[in-house]
Design a protein that fits this description.
Distance between the termini of chain A: 47 Å
Order of helices and strands of chain B: EHEHEHEHEHEHHHE
Helix content of chain A: 40-55%
Strand content of chain B: 15-25%
Mean pLDDT of chain A: 95
Order of helices and strands of chain A: EHEHEHEHEHEHHE
Number of helices of chain A: 7
Helix content of chain B: 40-55%
Largest sheet of chain B: 7 strands, parallel
Mean pLDDT of chain B: 96
Low-confidence stretches of chain A: 1-5
Number of strands of chain A: 7
Radius of gyration of chain B: 17 Å
Largest interface: A-B, 44 and 43 residues
Structural class of chain B: alpha/beta
Low-confidence stretches of chain B: none
Distance between the termini of chain B: 36 Å
Shape of chain B: globular
Oligomer: heterodimer
């Protein structure tokens, strides 16, 4: 059995996190840094991204950097991965976190909004996974199988229907099954690129505060249908990302981990 | 040390995944009570925990027996007052087509694999609720509880039952107690080796490794790592989740 350094399970590894300027992505960036990795924080919001990276750099010098990225731009992905491999020699971890949600019932949703979600959530995940897999292969040692971990941030909306966010459900379900398909593809090539998805319930982030309003999270009545009677914090997702990125989960691929306080376990309430 | 000052009960702790989890919880600072039917193996695990300066106690325990659960938890209640983690790991595996499976065989497996989970959650709940307010139950189910395999009708059925017990109890036990399950694929340990006694071990390992998408055959530690993660505070928002540790078997 290989020894696992439980304090620094990602020591010496290089990670790319998208949507890293805030919310879940920022927490993931911080957690992988604390676990010993160097993180490339990617976001299309340069101002917020640089500010977030500066905070991490102050705490963990030389372990965090920011790069501007539009996840829907294939050339930008290739440039990012080439740059990371040329400067760090490798890419070990990709967290495909960037995502958008435009709430609407499908019957009312504009095609423009639907395509926007498809582009960022589905195309962005596809392009990121493709660029990362190619980078992991290119940086594998001669004669050795490619290694790495890709964690796609899906949603409980990718496992079950949620009212009022039908388009988002469709894109997140696509990520759920893309994860399994990619995992099997890489594994059947005898590679050790593991690909898993995480399915958060309601997490308090700038994205969800934008949708629900910040006050929403102060009213516990909104979380009474959740068995744990609470919402998730970004670090609850980030802790699982570290586990799925580390050798502790070396036998885990094509799996989906739900982090929702029990919301989708069944029908709460009296029978 | 993720489990300092935590009291942890692991059933089926004298071999395989349960033994590995018991050792791992002890390494991470827990007081581990591990149970099983075989006192000789139990004392060997107790000695292994003691030799690494961990805190462990073996209790002889039949998980299919209601009275045995009541007695086991009375000992833990008297000694520790509360419980932080319950790992329902004990289980048995047999296979055969339905025409060769007697009702007695089927019921025997149900007792060990399902009644044990029901009884464990029922009788441990008061002690889990008496603890820190952040208790955790982890049921060791199987990939066989999510997908069917030919000639494994009893085992698959019991493991599916443990998954539904997990989901229902997650709703009932919140917010103070979390309930999750792992669904492992095959791992190479002494139990699988014993199941293939008389066959070439290297050939069997190769068979299992090549029959799954990820060409890596794990061992008990791979499941134990997932168990510890799900029982730790890092997983404080995870409940009702069924997590596959299966080298991609369940993905395709």
């Amino acid at each position: 059995m290989q020894e696992i350094n439980s304090n620094l399970p990602l020591k010496g590894l290089v990670a790319v996190v998208t949507g890293a300027a805030g919310g879940i992505g920022l927490a993931c960036a911080e957690h992988v840094v604390v676990a010993g990795a160097t993180v490339v924080m990617a976001d299309n919001d340069v101002k917020r991204g640089e500010a977030a990276a500066a905070v991490l750099q102050a705490k963990y010098p030389a372990q965090a950097e920011f790069t501007a990225l539009d996840v829907t731009d294939e050339a930008a992905w290739n440039k990012l991965m080439d740059d990371v491999v040329s400067r760090h020699g490798r890419v070990d971890i990709l967290v495909n976190n960037a995502g958008v949600c435009v709430p609407a019932r499908l019957q009312d949703a504009s095609f423009e909004d639907f395509k926007r979600m498809t582009s960022v959530n589905v195309d962005g995940t596809f392009l990121g996974a493709k660029a990362a897999i190619l980078a992991m292969r290119s940086s594998a040692a001669e004669g050795e199988p490619a290694r790495g971990a890709i964690i796609n941030i899906s949603s409980i909306a990718g496992q079950t229907a949620l009212m009022g966010v039908g388009g988002y459900c469709a894109t997140k379900a696509a990520i759920t099954n893309m994860t399994r398909a990619l995992a099997v593809e890489c594994a059947e090539r005898r590679e050790f690129i593991r690909i898993n998805s995480i399915h958060p319930g309601t997490v308090r982030t700038p994205l969800t505060e934008g949708i629900y309003g910040a006050d929403y999270f102060d009213d516990s009545a909104h979380f009474s249908p959740v068995p744990l009677k609470d919402f998730a914090r970004p670090e609850d997702i980030a802790a699982a990302v570290v586990y799925l990125a580390s050798d502790e989960s070396r036998m885990v691929t094509g799996s989906d981990l739900t982090i929702d306080g029990g919301f989708t376990a069944g029908i709460a309430g009296e029978f | 040390m993720r489990f300092t000052d935590k009291t942890v009960l692991v059933t089926g702790g004298t071999s395989g995944i349960g033994r590995e989890a018991s050792l791992a919880f002890a390494r991470e600072g827990a007081r581990v009570i591990f149970t099983g039917r075989d006192a000789v193996r139990g004392e060997a695990v107790a000695a292994a925990i003691a030799s690494s300066a961990g805190e462990g106690m073996f209790l002889q325990h039949d998980v299919a027996d209601e009275q045995s659960w009541i007695e086991t938890l009375a000992v833990i209640g008297d000694q520790y007052g509360s419980l932080d983690v319950l790992v329902n790991n004990a289980g048995i595996f047999t296979h055969g087509p339905i025409e060769n499976t007697s009702l007695e065989d089927f019921q025997e497996m149900w007792k060990t694999n399902v009644n044990s989970v029901f009884l464990g959650m029922k009788y441990a709940m008061p002690l889990l609720q008496a603890g820190s307010g952040k208790g955790a139950i982890l049921n060791v189910s199987s990939l066989s509880g999510l997908v069917g395999h030919p000639d494994v009708v009893s085992y698959c059925t019991t493991k599916a039952a443990s998954i539904m017990l997990t989901r229902v109890m997650a709703i009932e036990a919140g917010p103070s107690v979390r309930v999750n399950a792992v669904a492992p694929g095959p791992v190479w340990n002494e139990l699988l080796e014993r199941a293939h006694e008389g066959q070439n071990a290297e050939e069997m390992k190769s068979y299992y490794r090549e029959s799954q998408p990820l060409k890596f055959l794990g061992d008990s530690s791979d499941v134990s790592n997932g168990i510890l993660f799900l029982c730790s505070d890092a997983a404080r928002y995870i409940t009702g989740s069924i997590f596959r540790i299966d080298a991609g078997r369940g993905a395709d």
